[in-house]
Amino acid sequence: MRLQAVAASLVFVTTIQAQPTSPSTLTLIPKPREITASGVLSLARGVAIDAAANADDRFASEDLASRLREQGIPVRDAASASLRVSLLRTPSTAAARFLSSQRLTIDTAMRDEGYVLVVRGGRATVVGASSSAVFYGVQTLKQLIEGKGATAYVHEARIRDWPAMRYRGFHDDLSRGPLPTLDFQKKQLRTFAEYKINVYSPYYEHTLYYRSQPLVAPPGGAMSREDVRELVAYAKKYHIDVIPEQEAFGHLHHMLKYEIYSPLGETPHGHVLAPGQPGSMQVIRDMFGEIDSLFPSRFVHLGADETFELGRGQTAQRVQTEGIGPVYLGFLQQIEEALRPTGKRFLFWGDIAQNHPDLVKTLPHDMIAVPWSYGPAPSFDRLITPFSQANMETWVAPGVNNWNRVYPNNDNALRNIQGFVRDGQRLGSTGVLNTSWDDDGEGLFNQTWYGVLFGAAAAWQPGESSIEDYQRSFGRAFHGDTTGAIDEAQRKLIAAHVLLQQNNLGDASDFLFWLDPYTPEGSLVRAQLRPIVSQLRVLAESALVLVDRARPGVTREQDALDAMALGARRIDFLGMKFQFADEIAQLYATAYGADTTAAGRGAAGRALGEITGINARGQDMRDGFSLIRDLYEQAWLRENRQYWLHNVLARYDASTQRWIDRVDRVTQARRAWNRTRRLPPADSVGLGLP
Predict the structure, then answer these.
(1) Is the pLDDT of residue 223 over 70?
(2) How confident is the model at residue 11 (pLDDT cuts 50, 70, 90)?
(3) Are both 236 and 367 inside the same structural domain?
(4) Residues sharing a CB contact under 8 Å with residue 601, sequence separation 6 or more, in sequence order
(5) Nearest Cα to Cα of residue 258 among 213, 291, 221
């Protein structure tokens, strides 16, 4: 039965073909509000782009031209082109004439960011009332253009579109390991903008360099003032507001671990600033004063989540007398009051305050609460209503479920984003701050785009966004894959996570990846995995095959495709490690229990050879860790600075060495067996418990 299932999976992998390029296959992220598709037009003779009337629209034209060149589509004079593109602004005469001729309007809801896009009869016209509106119309036009070179084509369509939510953001953890290069951050911004994300929020605990606190930022592991200025200027061209988050209450261990800051902590060398410590407020003023000079955004995120140590140290007596809520919210108020002269609006995480709805009303009402939750749930109302009922603005924060995993758990991510954004829209939230975290220090951003783009779609689209529609659209919209193979590969990796969850193994976690299968915990996991390990591996390997089959037709985001393949390979190796550990243990038991007859000696020799001989299972474990180490290092350096990398590579090196040592011990036992026909117990060569 198992072989039939494997065969069926591989049959699907090998027979997948390119989907027809008819209007019915039109897939856009986000999905426009109003769209009518009518056909396709060949772009064999290239595209002409009319000169735009202002600098912002000229930048949008250049952005379109850059994409066309990437796809091998020539940009040429109008007389010889297959398609002529015009970017128009209301209330110009040309825009008014065009809208009237098409019986289309740009109403009040569309004025800030909404656009009209019509592609028909060799003309593509974008109309908007603002620079961002025209820019977003161009981004949709880019998605309508598919294929490469002479085989490229554009979908003809009539579109009216505008966003459901004003602030559509992504929050990126820069403080727990990977720190992106400035070039990669620019690539992130370009990609965010393509899918109409308009907020980027870098998260800092200790990785922004402050002149006032020079001890805190690690050398080579922080953004400089010059980095920030360049990033902010770059983001502005793409209509993205860079909103920094600097933790101002909890999550400050990398400051408080230093002796000169330790007196400011709730507990010695802990994580939380102590309310009532005069030095705490001075540090906050210093840091946010520098933030004010670097980030022109009118918003700043104060963090203030997970202050678990509060009341366990310096404020213990005060918390016992007043209660945790008043102490927490009182300090948050003091921070806001101290920073109010900057004129900023302050965001804060809502996890602590939501437990004290009566006290929430005491906070300044122009603060913005950011309730967060990262798992699927039937309803997220309880996280939002403590703030909405206090007439406080809210942005909801779901997550891409990348942390502590060898590849994001997109089953959790998509359902979490779908429900949280749906409920946020219904309860009046004005923004979304989709999040990634790097708790394990191993996350690769290029693996998160599946969740990032769904967050972008859910924030732009009204109501509950369809996961099924999105899963049919991602590969085509993000990679230019017309075969459906990438979409199917993502479903295989989702199924791998679900399989592990259904068998009480969590999901494809870093814990399982690094766990030695011959430890007590590893032995328990081996038993749990045993019934499903083959199925798990087939899912991961099928995803790898699907990615490879899609590559020839992929026109974009090859690095993200490589990162996806790496995730699939790590899931497969996770399963292989426990599966082969079982097989090695069984082989050693066969050799250990063999008698000294010729047949017994032959069986023992063959069994030991399967553990330590050429291409044996022990070498497979060594080779797997060392190969993935090299692929991981390459993927890391495509995104990140060198900082922190060695912390992860050291784990690969240690795991590789563990298997080298284990194989050497079995090899030595095998040589002794050749002389004495006796083997030591399995635990003495590292293959199990006593």
Answers:
(1) yes
(2) very low
(3) yes
(4) 594, 677
(5) 213
Q: Are residues 257 and 125 in the same domain?
A: no
Are the C-beta atoms of 75 and 68 separated by less than 8 Å?
yes
Surface-to-core class of residue 686, CB atoms within 10 Å of its CB (0-12 exposed, 13-18 middle, 19+ buried): middle
Q: Which amino acid is at 146?
A: E
Cβ atoms of 294 and 229 within 8 Å: the answer is: yes
Q: SS3 letters for 666-678?
A: HHHHHHHHHHHCC
Query: Phi, psi at residue 650, to the nearest 5°?
Result: -60, -35
Name the residue range of residue 663's domain: 491-685
**Per-residue CA distances from 311 to 79, 378, 568, 669 (Å):** 74, 33, 44, 57
Q: Among residues 535, 543, 540, which one has the least CA distance to residue 561?
A: 543
Structural element, H or E, at residue 8: helix 2-15
Mean pLDDT for the stretch of residues 533-544: 98
Q: Cis omega before residue 32 (within 30°)?
A: no
Amino acid 278: pLDDT: 86
The CATH number assigned to the domain holding 59 equals 3.30.379.10
Residue 157 host element (H or E): strand 153-161
* Last residue of one domain, picked from the residues 106, 127, 161: 161
Three-state SS sequence of 217-233:
CCCCCCECHHHHHHHHH
Give me the amino acid identity at 230.
Answer: E
For residue range 398-446, list pLDDT tens digits in order: 999 999 999 999 999 999 999 999 999 999 999 999 999 999 999 999 9
Place of tokens 């426990």: 578
Residue pair 477/143 in contact by the 8 Å Cβ criterion: yes
**pLDDT tens-digit profile of 16-72?**
444 434 444 689 999 999 999 989 999 999 999 999 889 999 999 999 999 999 999
Cβ of 427: how many Cβ atoms within 10 Å? 17
CB distance 480 to 29 below 8 Å: no
How many independent structural domains does the chain possess?
3
Q: Is residue 472 part of a domain?
A: no
Helix (H) or strand (E) holding 38: strand 34-42
Q: What is the pLDDT of residues 454-504, one digit of tens each?
A: 999 999 999 999 999 999 999 999 999 999 999 999 999 999 999 999 999
Cα–Cα distance for residue pair 386/356, rounded to 1 Å: 8
Residue appearing with tokens 């939380």: 272
pLDDT of residue 353: 81
| 372 DSSP 8-state letter | B
- Give yes or no: residues 431 and 564 share one domain: no
Cβ partners under 8 Å of residue 24, min gap 6 = none
Cα–Cα distance for residue pair 288/302, rounded to 1 Å: 9
Neighbours of 391 (CB within 10 A): 9
Q: What is the pLDDT of residues 173-190, one digit of tens each?
A: 999 999 999 999 999 999
State the Cα–Cα distance between residues 5 and 433, nearest whole angstrom: 41
Residue with tokens 């310096």: 314
Instruction: Determine contact, residues 235/241, Cβ cutoff 8 Å.
Output: yes
Contacts of residues 505-508 at CB distance under 8 Å and 24 or more positions apart, as own/partner, are 505/529, 507/405, 507/409, 507/412, 508/405, 508/406, 508/407, 508/409, 508/570, 508/571, 508/574
pTM attached to this predicted model: 0.94
- Residue 579 phi/psi, 5° resolution? -65, -45
Given a cut of 50, whether residue 109 has pLDDT beyond it is yes
Amino acid at 600: G
- Based on the domain organization, do 155 and 210 belong to the same domain? no
Tokens of 288: 């946010």
Q: What is the rounded CA–CA span in Å between residue 431 and residue 429?
A: 6
